[in-house]
Amino acid sequence: MYGFVLTIHIIVSVGLILIVLLQAGKGAGISGLFGGGSNDSAFSGATTPGVIKKITTTMAVLFMITSLALTVIIAKSRRRSLAETIPVAQPTQQQQQPAPSPSGPDAVPPAQE
Questions:
Q1: Which is higher by pLDDT, 31 or 107?
Q2: Domain map of the chain by residue range?
Q3: Rounded to whole angstroms, how far apart are CA atoms 3 and 67?
Q4: Which of 30, 49, 76, 86 is the most core-located residue (most Cβ within 10 A)?
């Protein structure tokens, strides 16, 4: 069930991306970036045909439904996350080794008793 819903989710995701990229933008040119390109849209027709809008809406609804379905399926099956499947190495206890004695012209000789 999970694989089927995941496959549908991926197909819907790619389809939604493609259908959004096919739509024409409201503003043309650089003025559209700052909101100035939509002044004449009150007297013109819709920039996106109704069919493409319906397909976009349908794909968006399917995307949301498959997202929720995947979440419910995973929550019910309680699958482990990928991070939980990585084995954790136990830290090894290292023995304290005495520090090497300094040698050189500035070395302080050890105290003698």
A1: 107
A2: 1-25+47-80
A3: 13
A4: 49
